[in-house]
Write a structure and sequence with these properties.
heterodimer; A: 110 residues; 3 helices; 0% strand; B: 933 residues; mainly alpha; two-stranded antiparallel ribbon; two-stranded antiparallel sheet
Chain lengths: 110, 933
């Protein structure tokens, strides 16, 4: 039933991400994107199915290995999503400077 | 043929570079390179004259069946000679035409680029390759036509030419794909030999229409002709080149090239000859009414191209021979006429034939040359234009006898011929005689000696071909026509006198009619002035463009309403609808047959913790600091998940990224508005929660469905070969730096770009820092805590040591460039946090650009290194070293690549964080200045 638990975790992370990206201020949207990155990275990672205690590091006595390919993909994805998060944050700061508020559409109705 | 193309393309770059030492160097470089190109053609030409067809093949992408294949036969050779020969003359001519203010380097570089693209078209064996060069001519002609970028008409004309020929290129791509699929091969040798299969195929007609669209747009055939007159805003050497021997000839080249494969059907005959005839007559008619010298030549070019198209449309072998012959003749006399027009414009300052009169007295030499060339254009005997026009008339008469209403064909053609004679006559009479010049900006005089030499050469050719056809043009005409027909040539005789034939009578009628028409031009001009606007395709084009932009704008405005929230909402709803309908439509069960793993208590607790933290983040997201701490906890549990499911590398990466992200968000939080945002209305919260729950539920179900299904993987290859080929035990790392190293190179490039983008955004960013926090407390101006400061200083070498250790062992154990880079970044950021920006700044350079650049360079050149050993890009080589105390470990070239990755990660991360940190210190009001106040 480990699969169900992981699926639930991914679902919760997605739901949190979706709710936050629908907010009107930039900061929650950045948090939402971070949540979505977690969810997507985990989802991609689990495409190699769940394997316990068999890291893909070659040694003579191993009975088997986890799928290394999704791991390699996700490793760079984590770093890239960091770059993206950083970019979005800076964009929101820049928007705040130019528009004078932190609303996602730049209109301060609050 | 590849060396020839390389000479020209590399020559384009070289010419651009050499122009920094002076424009004349660029002219010399372009001229010498073109001459070199002509010389390179000699061995091939000898073989082709001996009857061979040369095919050169260079393997390019063997897996997708794409090779670089070149073909040199008679037709290709003829065109290559025209492109290079007239190109060389244009280069000489342009040297004197361009003023010192024009950038010669740019001109010659574009010209060579265009020349290379044209050569690519005529020398390609593979039609997809041909299309690539075809598009390249569209692009480079755009650059050439818009050479005087500061002029609005040049920009507009270039844009129009690009839009029309580019759209034609799209159609041609479709046509070529169909053609290739029908013939079973994309290589001309096969296509030309399988004409019967192609003509009998049910997709013949759509394919033909698409290919013809490509050819007609390029050759300015009606109704796509209007870009050609508008492209006259280009410098005259460009017009002389593009509209005599090259650009517009690419379309008729295509007709000639595919003649054996496509011609011989009623569809071909009606479409090609119909369009050709219309263009021929219409162009000749319009040319007479132009007052601009170049405008007259432009419409005349269009008319002559219509003539050539019509000849190919008639479809008999002899008509094709005449078509090839007229391609040669038109290239020669039209290039010289454009050059003469350029001289007149250059030395008198005007191109308006209403002002240009009586230039004979001022420039008799140029006038003589222009008059001979114009006579050739009109088809006067003893000049080259006469011979091919005579063949054309004869073919039209014999084609007409087979058709119903066939007598129309010679009649219409004679009418076209009458207009051709009239506009040629006008070119001569209006410019060189007909009274005195009227208000010219300059007093006209003869041009520099060498500006006339190209014109003289071309005019001499007109005469030679016209008087001694069998000694001059016949050999090349024979092999070129053989290249077109791919079979035995029909009998033809290039004699000047054929006796009294219908063709001769047509010529006579055209000459007399033309003279008469010119004499009556006064009333005709007035008539045209009043009613001539209906033929302005340009207006239609502009109306269509405006409508296109308006509709695109309205669609965009409907989709993008300017609110991100609504956009996101429609996005998520679309995801739900698409995903839901996809699943409901499939009818497969949710749960697959894979055996499930057992649940354990610790995993359950960790998952519950993650869920609680995530939900709490959402609920408390308006208290931003708290939300940040909570989301940090979520990230930590995510890295634990990676640990649990056998992904130590991912866990390490996630952990270090988490730290960096939280620090970054903390820094950013400082600049966000401090007051809590307004709560959303209840219905809105309810709506968003339900959407979020549905999307989250969908993600859960999808993950569950995938995880419970068995699957096949290609991982076996990596696991088996990691050790033997990549020299490492950590398969994830070996994939990153070796098997898929090229992807990783792309990814670190993205990282570097993101960092540079952020740097650019931050550069002039000035945000006011708040004076107090949310509760109104003032910032603490205490010095940095001494214990923490000294401890982190002590920790720095240790942390760097750890990161180097992680980097070195990465090939065999969890670690590697990405993780080591992040650890180093964290260690350095710690110094900033504990010791302050000023202290750290004075000890650590803030300029991270060289680090990023060097890292990228290292990673890229490591890949190149494997080329030296004859391996594909980024193949790792490795050897084992014995290091005392550490033991045996291997040194792989992948290590250098990983160091490159490491440097980029360190550089990018620090660049982002340091600059945000610097903004902080800039926004603070230092405490002492405040107290001083």
């Amino acid at each position: 039933m480990m699969e169900a638990l992981v699926a639930l975790v991914i679902g919760v992370l997605t739901a949190c991400g979706v709710y936050l990206t629908l907010r009107a201020r930039t900061f929650p949207v950045v948090l939402g994107l971070t949540f979505l990155s977690y969810a997507v990275n985990l989802f991609l990672f689990t495409m190699g199915r769940l394997t316990i205690g068999r890291p893909p590091i070659i040694h003579g006595t191993a009975a088997g290995y986890a799928d290394p390919l999704p791991q390699a993909l996700v490793l760079t994805a984590i770093v890239i999503s960091f770059a993206m998060t950083a970019f979005v944050i800076m964009l929101s700061l820049k928007a705040r400077e130019e528009l004078g508020n932190d609303h996602v559409d730049g209109k301060d109705d609050a | 043929m590849l060396p020839l193309l390389l000479t020209i393309f590399a020559g384009s770059v070289f010419t651009a570079w050499v122009s920094r030492f002076g424009g004349l160097y660029a002219a010399w470089s372009a001229g010498v390179l073109t001459l070199l190109g002509l010389l390179q053609l000699v061995p091939g030409a000898v073989a082709v004259f001996a009857g061979e067809t040369l095919i050169e093949r260079l393997t390019w992408m063997p897996t997708s069946g794409l090779d670089l294949v070149f073909r040199l036969d008679g037709l290709g050779l003829l065109f290559a000679l025209l492109i290079l020969g007239i190109g060389l003359l244009v280069i000489v001519y342009a040297r004197y035409y361009l003023s010192p203010r024009d950038c010669m380097g740019r001109f010659y570089a574009y010209l060579l680029l265009f020349m290379g693209a044209m050569l690519g078209i005529v020398l390609s064996e593979n039609i997809i390759q041909l299309l690539i060069f075809w598009e390249l001519t569209s692009l480079s002609s755009f650059l050439l036509i818009s050479y005087w970028q500061y002029r609005a008409d040049a920009r507009q004309g270039a844009r129009m030419a690009l839009a029309i020929t580019g759209a034609g290129g799209m159609a041609l791509l479709g046509g070529f794909v169909l053609l290739g699929e029908i013939a079973g091969s994309y290589e001309l040798s096969t296509i030309l030999a399988s004409g019967d299969v192609i003509r009998a195929h049910p997709h013949y007609l759509p394919m033909l229409i698409l290919v013809l669209l490509g050819a007609f747009t390029k050759s300015a055939q009606f109704p796509f002709h209007f870009w050609l007159p508008n492209a006259m805003s280009a410098p005259t050497p460009v017009s002389a080149y593009l509209h005599s021997a090259t650009m517009v000839k690419a379309g008729v080249f295509l007709l000639a090239r595919l003649f054996p494969a496509l011609s011989g059907t009623p569809e071909w005959a009606w479409l090609v000859s119909g369009v050709g005839l219309t263009t021929f007559v219409l162009g000749a008619f319009m040319a007479l009414f132009q007052h601009d010298l170049k405008g007259l030549l432009a419409y005349s070019t269009m008319s002559h191209l219509g003539l050539i198209t019509l000849l190919f449309g008639i479809g008999t072998p002899l008509a094709a021979v005449a078509g090839v012959f007229h391609i040669i003749n038109h290239a020669i006399f039209k290039a010289s006429l454009f050059m003469a027009a350029g001289i007149i414009d250059h030395e008198s300052g005007s191109r308006d034939m209403r002002c240009l009169n009586g230039l004979w007295k001022h420039m008799p030499h140029t006038a003589l040359l222009a008059m001979v060339a114009a006579a050739a254009m009109a088809g006067v005997p003893l000049l080259n234009g006469f011979l091919s026009k005579e063949m054309f008339f004869a073919e039209a008469v014999s084609a007409g006898t087979h058709l119903q209403l066939g007598w129309m064909l010679p009649v219409l053609i004679t009418i076209g011929g009458i207009f051709a004679v009239a506009y040629s006559f006008r070119f001569i009479h209006d410019v060189f005689f007909n009274g005195e010049p009227i208000d010219l900006p300059k007093t006209p005089h003869e041009p520099p000696r060498w500006m006339k030499v190209p014109v003289e050469l071309l005019v001499a050719l007109c005469l030679l071909v016209g008087i001694l056809p069998s000694l001059t043009v016949e050999p090349i005409l024979r092999i070129a026509a053989a290249g077109v027909l791919q079979t035995e040539l029909p009998y033809f005789d290039l004699a000047i006198w054929h006796g009294v034939s219908p063709a001769l009578l047509m010529s006579l009628a055209a000459a007399l009619g033309g003279g008469l028409l010119y004499a009556l031009r006064g009333p005709l001009f007035i008539l045209h002035e009043k009613h001539g606007d209906f033929l302005q395709g340009k207006l239609l084009f502009e109306a269509m463009m405006t409508a296109l932009f308006a509709s695109a704008g309205s669609i965009t405005r409907r989709l993008d309403t300017g609110t991100l929230q609504r956009l996101m909402l429609s996005f998520f709803i679309a995801v739900l609808v698409l995903g839901g309908s996809g699943y409901l439509g499939s009818g497969s069960p949710l749960r697959g047959g894979r055996e499930l793993l057992a649940l354990d208590a610790i995993s359950l607790i960790a998952a519950l913790g993650l869920i609680l933290a995530a939900v709490a983040t959402v609920v408390l997201h308006r208290q931003r600091f708290v939300a940040l701490v909570l989301i940090g906890a979520v990230g930590l549990v995510v890295s634990l998940i990676f640990v649990k499911f056998s992904a130590p590398d991912l866990a390490l990466t996630q952990l270090s990224v988490e730290i960096v992200t939280i620090v970054l968000l903390l820094l950013a939080l400082y600049f966000m508005p401090q007051r809590p945002e307004r709560e959303s209305s209840h219905p809105r919260v309810l709506r968003d929660v339900s959407i979020a729950a549905l999307v989250g539920g969908g993600a859960t179900l999808l993950t569950w469905a995938v995880l419970t299904r068995p699957y096949g993987t290609i991982a076996g290859y990596f696991l088996e070969n990691a050790k033997s080929e990549g020299g490492g035990n950590n398969v994830v790392n070996v994939i990153l730096v070796d098997f898929r190293g090229f992807d990783t190179l792309g990814e670190i490039a993205v990282l570097a770009l993101a960092a540079l983008g952020i740097f650019a955004m931050l550069e002039r960013l000035q945000l006011p820092g708040p004076d107090t926090d949310e509760q109104g407390r003032r910032w603490n101006w205490d010095t940095h805590p001494a214990v923490m400061a000294s401890l982190t200083r002590l920790l720095l070498p240790l942390a760097l040591l750890v990161s180097i250790f992680i980097l070195l062992r990465g090939h065999n154990l969890p670690g590697g460039g990405f993780i080591a880079g992040l650890i180093t970044a964290v260690a350095l950021i710690m110094q900033y946090l504990a010791n302050g920006v000023t202290w750290t700044q004075s000890r650590l350079p803030a300029n991270m650009h060289p680090v990023i650049g060097f890292g990228l360079l290292l990673a890229a050149t490591t890949g190149l290194g494997s080329w030296l050993f004859g391996h594909p890009y980024l193949t790792s080589t490795f050897t084992y070293l014995d290091w005392p105390l550490v033991g045996k470990f291997e040194v792989a070239s992948a290590m250098a690549f990983d160091i490159g990755v490491y440097l980029v990660v360190v550089g990018a991360t620090l660049l982002i964080l340091i600059h945000l940190g610097l903004m902080h210190s800039a926004s603070h009001i230092a405490p002492d200045t405040e107290e001083a106040r």
